[in-house]
Structure formats: C-alpha cells, structure tokens
Design brief:
4-stranded antiparallel sheet; mainly beta; 130 residues
C-alpha cells in the first residue's frame, strides 16, 4: 500500500497541480535521479517562479518539446487501475497501468502534451522572483 493510501490520491495530486501549474507559463523541465523524478519549472503571469517535482516516476513522455512561455493546462489525473483490462493498453504499451499507487498525469503546455506516470508530486514557489 502506498504511504498515502488512506488519502484521496487523485484529488490530492489534482489540487497540487492546479495550485501550482494551472495557468502558469512553461519555462523548462528536467529529470533527476536517472529519470525517477521529473521537474517542471514555470512562472506565473505575475512573474513568480513555480516548480513541480513528480516523484517515483514510472514513465514520462512528451508529444513534442514545449515552447517557453506556453500556457500550462492540467488535462487529467487518473489513478492506475491494475485490474482493468483495456484493448488500448494491450495494443499500446504506454497505456498500460504500472500498478497500484501510480497516477497518470496529462498536462498541456501550449501545443505539447506531457504524460507523466508517477506516485506523488510536490511543488514550491521561488519567493525571491516576485
């Protein structure tokens, strides 16, 4: 059982991402610890820098490289359902569930779509950039 198994993980991740990234403008992204973490850096319209670290990443993919200053929109947060059999998941490996405790996060950054499968996320603002 994940450490936060007693919480509404989908709702928790959605709130984190809405509070941090929704409406922000994309700056850059990077991986840490051999791809086990993905960090997205952005800034709010008022100039405050904000970053989100996706933790325990099982996979991450982008349809294309997001352009700087692209508006970020949270598309979806889906908890993985290992008991669900899907023909799409059978045919296309990226739609396979990594197992319980993971969530698939889909984010639009302009025309680019980011698809991140992770267990958790954390965010912070750079107080000195406002």
């Amino acid at each position: 059982m994940p450490a936060l198994g007693f919480t509404d993980q989908r709702g928790r991740l959605r709130r984190i991402l809405e509070n941090s990234l929704e409406g922000a403008l994309y700056d850059s992204s990077e991986t840490e610890e051999d791809g086990r973490m993905v960090v997205v850096h952005a800034h709010r319209p008022d100039g405050r820098a904000v970053s989100v670290r996706f933790r325990a990443v099982a996979s991450s993919d982008a349809s294309e490289a997001p352009l700087p200053d692209a508006v970020i929109k949270l598309r979806d947060v889906d908890l993985a359902n290992p008991g669900c059999l899907s023909l799409l998941a059978f045919a296309v490996p990226r739609f396979r569930s990594p197992g319980p405790g993971y969530a698939r996060v889909r984010i639009d950054a302009g025309a680019a779509r980011l698809d991140i499968v992770c267990q958790d996320a954390e965010w912070w603002e750079d107080a000195g950039s406002a």
